[in-house]
Amino acid sequence: MKTMRYISTRGATQPMGFQDAVLTGLADDGGLLIPESIPDVSDWLDDWAKLSYQDITYEILRLFVDLPNDDLRELIDRSYANFRHPEIAPAWSVGPIHILELFHGPTLAFKDIALQFLSNFFEYILTRTGQRLNILGATSGDTGSAAIHGVRGRERINIFIMHPHGRVAPLQERQMTSVLDPNVFNIAIEGTFDDCQRIMKSIFSDLDFKQRYSLGAVNSVNWARVMVQIVYYFSAGLYVMDQERVSRVRFAVPTGNFGDVLAGYYASRMGLPINRLILATNENDILARFFNTGEYSLGHVVPTLSPSMDIQVASNFERYLYYRLGEDPAKLTALMRAFGSTGRLSVPPLADGSVDALFAAGVGTTADTLATIRKYHELYHYLLDPHTAVGVHVAEQHLQAGEPTVCLATAHPAKFSEAIREATGKDLAHHEFLDKLADAETRMTVLPADETAVRKFIEEHV
Ligand SMILES: *Cc1c(COP(=O)(O)O)cnc(C)c1O
Predict the structure, then answer these.
(1) How much distance in Å is there from the Cα of 165 to the middle of ligand 1?
(2) What is the atom index within ligand 1 of the atom nearest the CA of 254?
(3) How many whole angstroms separate alpha carbon 396 and alpha carbon 63?
(4) DSSP single-letter state for residue 26
(5) Domain segments of the chain: what residues?
(6) 391 in ligand 1 pocket by Cβ < 6 Å?
(7) Ligand 1: does its nearest atom lie under 6 Å from the Cβ of 257?
(8) At what angle do helices 111-129 and 142-151 cross, to 10 degrees?
(9) 278 and 360 Cβ atoms separated by less than 8 Å
(10) Which fold would CATH assign to domain 1-110+222-438?
(11) Which run of H or E residues covers position 190?
């Protein structure tokens, strides 16, 4: 088997191996790293339907990584060892849809699935090379928490996570700031999540600084995260198709950064028979507008009940756009430059008149979110977290007989118990791990939304 190499969406970096791609995070030309080709696995699907989650992970990751097989297996086993459900990502039939529970990892959100793997991978590489790594990240809540829990206490890694001060759910904040290991630095930025991302991107674009401080990224643009997330589309898709004796599925994906749904796009391109990817946003609907109109234009971030999707600039969107523009780095670069200066870009419709026939897209408002949580609790005794509720709401508008819909459940409801209380009038959503945080000691540093201040903080603490 040929070893996969990675190229930049902007076309101006040398192809590199998986390990370099993951350690680099963002490509040096400002683009995102993508595999040089997308493997076709359609011939293997029947065999994979019988495998465990870890074994499907192994089969998929093998196509993308340059690690010895035994080491890869060990990394996978270690990464899922502390999940709270033996199936890792179980899928249940609930009312008219299937719910794929991705929240059984250490921090109770789907980001653990990728970040547990990524942390183990970093440690594996650093131990071999004797190097150190300083992770810099921006989070709207769940990423930071999952990343911090992934690398806490590891010897060769420091982690600096920026979150928008006072704009993440209090519990999400505590999940991050209650980790007191000396290699963990929480930075509360006086601004929005987009400010945090802007600062991060700008620091990463200073290649000197990046090298001097061995900076690495864990944000959703890191290829390893997308890669690991491809797995659950296969595991759930194959399981549900087998259960329902059908040959096609739909996936509904609550999204903000286009990370999770991008993994579904890759799964589809790899040969999983996904007939529709149903993209669901909250009122921050730049992505839903794009798939319905072809125009991608910045609005203002509004806070909602699903804060992990309160995003305007979707950092992974560029990867999709690359494929949508016919894998033409020059075209993509021009479009992204234009977007950088005007805050908008558009693509012409395809021959069938759609932006992309694989996608359907819709919005779940705050009212829809609450109504959906209430309805699923009353009718099916199932508690949806508000992000998942956005997905379910939009999924219900795109149901198709003979084609089951799997909705990704991205967080445990107890992470957003306020929304559950608001929807149901009852205090139903609890988890022992979260309840214990209430009186934990916390630590963070508040900084202005200013790149210089963040650089200085990093210099002083590595
Ligand atoms: C991060 C997150 C999302 C959105 O994920 P994307 O990578 O933007 O698609 C949705 N729900 C929860 C709970 C999250 O943490």
Answers:
(1) 19
(2) 10
(3) 34
(4) B
(5) 1-110+222-438
(6) no
(7) yes
(8) 40
(9) yes
(10) Rossmann fold (3.40.50)
(11) strand 184-190
Pick from 27, 205, 215, 19: which is nearest to 133 by CA? 215
Distance CA 453, CA 462 (A): 15
Q: Can you tell me the distance from the alpha carbon of 177 to that of 321, in angstroms, rounded to the nearest whole number?
A: 35
Query: DSSP assignment, residue 415?
Result: G
Q: Tens digit of pLDDT for each residue in 264-323?
A: 999 999 999 999 999 999 999 999 999 999 999 998 889 899 988 988 788 899 999 999
Q: How far is the CA of 14 from the centre of ligand 1 (A)?
A: 31
Residue 201's pLDDT band, with cuts at 50, 70 and 90, is confident
Please report the pLDDT score of residue 118 as a whole number. 94
Give catalytic residue positions.
111
Q: How far is the CA of 109 from the centre of ligand 1 (A)?
A: 8
The residue among 291, 18, 53, 19 whose CA lies nearest residue 129 is 19
The reply to whether ligand 1 has any atom less than 6 angstroms from the CB of 412 is no
Segment 44-79, tens digit of pLDDT: 999 999 999 999 999 999 999 999 999 999 999 999
Query: Ligand 1: which of 308, 388, 412, 417 to mutate, judged by most atoms within 8 Å of the beta carbon?
Result: 308
CA angle 220, 225, 229 (to 5 degrees): 115
pTM over 0.90: yes
pLDDT at 1 over 70: no
Of the candidates 122, 130, 119, the residue with the CA atom closest to the CA atom of residue 152: 119
pLDDT tens profile 90-135:
999 999 999 999 999 999 999 999 999 999 999 999 999 999 999 9
Q: Is 260 in the pocket of ligand 1 (CB under 6 A)?
A: yes
- Please report the pLDDT score of residue 221 as a whole number: 84
Query: Would the pLDDT of 140 be above 90?
Result: no
Cβ–ligand 1 contact at 255 (below 6 Å): yes
Supply the residue whose CA is at minimum distance from atom 4 of ligand 1: 255
